């Protein structure tokens, strides 16, 4: 779903301890509707909006990635990243995000269907 090339999201971290965000764009260049889920290496320091959803064929959507910045740039030695999992939408249809269908989306369906793919987006931290 994501474009080719380096997949990094840059967080320009200010000295004050306040949450910051960076937006990424997901592109679905295929002729089939896709569903996606974004996971991160730490739910304590990151947030994702929306964490899952649908992308129509040949369309794009924006995802906002938040760095909570409670302790500044992470010094835990880990390479933090976001993983974007995607697969074809069930029956190739778009689903209403307000419906109860979204709850089992990646808990039940993904257990039975093979995921189409995954893209990794590295988190890069720069002092502002």
From TrEMBL:
KW Membrane (keyword) present: no
Record-linked InterPro entries: Ig-like_fold, MSP_dom, PapD-like_sf
Keyword Cytoplasm in record: yes
UniProt keyword annotations, A-Z: Cytoplasm, Cytoskeleton
Full protein name: Major sperm protein
Domain MSP positions: 1-128
Gene3D superfamilies on file: Immunoglobulins
Function: Central component in molecular interactions underlying sperm crawling. Forms an extensive filament system that extends from sperm villipoda, along the leading edge of the pseudopod.
Phylogenetic classification of the source organism: Eukaryota, Metazoa, Ecdysozoa, Nematoda, Chromadorea
SUPFAM superfamilies for this protein: PapD-like
């Amino acid at each position: 779903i994501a474009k080719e090339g380096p997949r990094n999201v840059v967080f320009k971290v200010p000295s004050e301890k306040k949450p910051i965000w960076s937006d990424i764009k997901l592109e679905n260049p295929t002729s089939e509707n896709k569903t996606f889920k974004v996971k991160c290496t730490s739910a304590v320091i990151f947030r994702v909006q929306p964490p899952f959803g649908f992308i129509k064929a040949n369309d794009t959507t924006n995802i906002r990635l938040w760095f909570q910045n409670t302790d500044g740039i992470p010094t835990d030695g880990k390479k933090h990243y976001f993983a974007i999992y995607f697969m074809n939408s069930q029956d190739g249809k778009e689903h209403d995000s307000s419906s109860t269908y979204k709850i089992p989306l990646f808990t039940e369906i993904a257990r039975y269907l093979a995921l189409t793919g995954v893209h990794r987006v590295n988190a890069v931290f720069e002092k502002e």
